[in-house]
Amino acid sequence: MNITILRFDTIDSTNTEAANQARQGAAEGLCVIADQQTAGRGRHGRTWSSQKGSGLYFSIVLRPKIDTQSLPLITLMTGIAVYDTLKEFGVEPDIKWVNDILVRERKISGILAETVETPTGLAVIVGIGINLTSRTFPDEIADIATSIEAESMMMGPRALDPLAVETKLASFIGYWYEILLGESGRSEIIQNWRQRSSYFSGKSVRVTLPANTIDGTTDGLEENGALRVKTRDGSVTIVQAGDVEMLREVSHE
Ligand code: BTN
């Protein structure tokens, strides 16, 4: 994949811009990066705090030839790439299905994958936000979020170079995307995700679905990246999309 970078000081949302670029024919590999976003978007219509210099705001145009059922694999592939990027900067992350990268249960990065119809077929816009510093966190996320600066075991007083983070990220996405498109790509992505995520199996979770909420234990992933959750009665629910949160064991002493 050929990586091309389109850079902005300020933009509403790099995902919106990348979608517009894709509609106008942008090739796979176009990355839109901004220093700040005025309308950064998270999942479920949430906003993504995007102050200048506080985070990496990055969106890439992909044009994968895979069925729409397998789109969760794109998010999983991206999670692996973000995980590997963070490791390079001395951070020990975990991946929470399907789009959250955590350190000590605090969010350090989120992924927003969106599809867009374009004249040359369906494109997937993968947006990634990585927190670089915690200093500018708004009050409402201060206790639940973290950053490379706060978690890195090797940065010391050295300032974090955002350019180094974006370069590594683009290169890991290129690497893992090629793997996904390869012959046994799906199983390789699932295997590699498994090695990086404590959520793969045996984790007590609560899943919020559009119609209901289920409590259970994670039980691996389906071939298309959907999450299997086993409930108390032994039945398995296959979660294609939904919010997953860890359930802490309640002690009954
Ligand atoms: C989430 O965890 O809810 C997903 C957050 C995704 C944020 C990124 S920042 C770059 C790109 N542009 C956006 O507007 N959103 C994504």
What does this molecule look like?
- With 253 residues, the chain is of the alpha+beta class.
- Helix content is 25%, strand content 33%.
- It contains five helices and twelve strands.
- The chain has helices spanning 14-23, 72-88, 148-151, 162-181, 185-196; strands at residues 4-11, 30-37, 55-62, 94-96, 100-103, 106-118, 121-131, 201-208, 213-221, 227-230, 236-239, 243-246.
- The strands form two sheets. The chain has a seven-stranded mixed β-sheet with strand order 1-2-3-7-6-5-4, with helices on both faces. It has a five-stranded antiparallel β-sheet with strand order 11-10-9-8-12, with no helix packed on it.
- β1, α1 (14-23) and β2 form a beta-alpha-beta unit.
- α4 packs across α5 (185-196).
- The termini are far apart.
- The mean pLDDT is 93.
- The chain binds biotin.
Please sum up the structure shown.
With 253 residues, the protein is of the alpha+beta class. It is built from five helices and twelve strands. A hairpin with a 3-residue loop joins β4 and β5.
